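Holo prediction. Input below; ligand is uridine-5'-diphosphate-glucuronic acid.
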Amino acid sequence: MAIMQPSTITVLGAGYVGLTTAALLAHAGYTVYALEPNKARLDVIKQGRSFFYEAGLDPVIKTALESGKFIPTNSYEDSVPGSDVVFSCVGTPDNPDGSSNLSYVFSAAEQAAKLMKQSAVFVQKSTVPVGTGAKIQELFSTINQSLHYVSNPEFLREGTALEDTLFFDRVVAGGDHTESVQTVLSLYHQLEAQRDSIAAIAAITSTEAKGEYIATGLASAELIKVTANAFLALKISFANSIAKLADKSGADVVEVMDAVGADKRIGRAFLNAGRGYGGGCFPKDVSGLISSGLDYGVDLEIMQAAQGVNGSMPGYVAEKLLQALNGNLEGASIAILGLAFKAGTSDSRKSPGVAIANILSKAGAVVTAYDPKANEEAKEDLLSNITLVDSLDDCVQNATAVVIATEWSEFASLPVTFYQQINSSLIIVDAVNKLDKHALAQSNLQYIGIGR
Ligand code: UGA
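Structure of the complex:
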């Protein structure tokens, strides 16, 4: 089997996935165009930086740019025609009904197909509903029949994007054209060969990784991605359901999940109960999967339940605080620590911390919020009467209660004395279940966990 040896690659869309992919492939030795239509974002990338916070990414972009192998552009004409492989990493926002909005996916594919050279490979990295690849192949057949389509789903997490991509459990590529699937896998072999030197540039530590290469059919590759995210979301909602029972029965959900997760068949990961999942992926992928199931006449009730539990969690956190305040939030001064949807990122999309802040503010509390990285991104989603501050100390001063909504280590590691000096009868709502409840229990402070 003769597989193509690509030299030039275009990555359409330089967001979390696209920018990481483009910069890494440049370090793997390919000439990579990172195509970003948003001028403000492109200007930042051209300075050798990322427009969002992702640990280790800036030095990787900077060195790639200096090598001349990484070329930021907004032009399809300058990048696509000379590329052997074109990756699509454009956004897939959700429609109001929960289905995936694929307008960027289709328009990027169409624009690229008109310019791609004969027998080039188009690689879909954006998360799309199963069946989308078949539709794009139909579109390609009307533009250029020689193009090959491969689905190569992305499994990186924000905050650990480089670790996840370099030290991967598996790379999946699926399509009808075996050689093209192997071409895509070969890019990752090249990347794997360079990973220690890239890890050194990014100052991240190497981790053990399974490193499996998996070739599948097209529809399977598409379904693998959403199934993986849906299952992880299911685990979180399951843990949160058990947390509600633990609250009523006096069990501690952390103790429960530590022991349950010690069973190899179950695993401890993604069983952390708390304020629920947020971000640009799980909420959208769960609703997208439900909606794509319905398109095929399949009712994924189990995912609807997971979505329902998740939607209830910010309100559940607020309710617990309300009870501690004897049913009266009016005028209570509440500090929200954490607006990012998880630690390690500036991303606040569908962030539970933002949801909790808004619920409490609507209920009459005086809310002050702080995040070490996400203030700027969270600003527009916070109700206007919430005060956003630039430091932890400004956030907590005069607080009646503190809500920890993101598991940033700088919050989790605060000593008991820190809380005591704010207010000796402070209420601490640990919505990420990360604090030492035993240490806090020995003080006068009131500790409220989720299922603890
Ligand atoms: C997720 C997947 O983990 C990635 O594999 C996937 O590539 C990515 O979506 C995507 O589709 O692009 P990400 O959204 O970056 O990654 O973040 P996660 O670390 O998975 O966390 C998602 C949410 O679940 C966060 O709000 C986190 O706080 C929450 N979470 C996670 C819990 O509430 N409990 C847990 O036990 C784990």
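The CA atoms of residues 64 and 71 lie 9 Å apart. That is the main takeaway for now.
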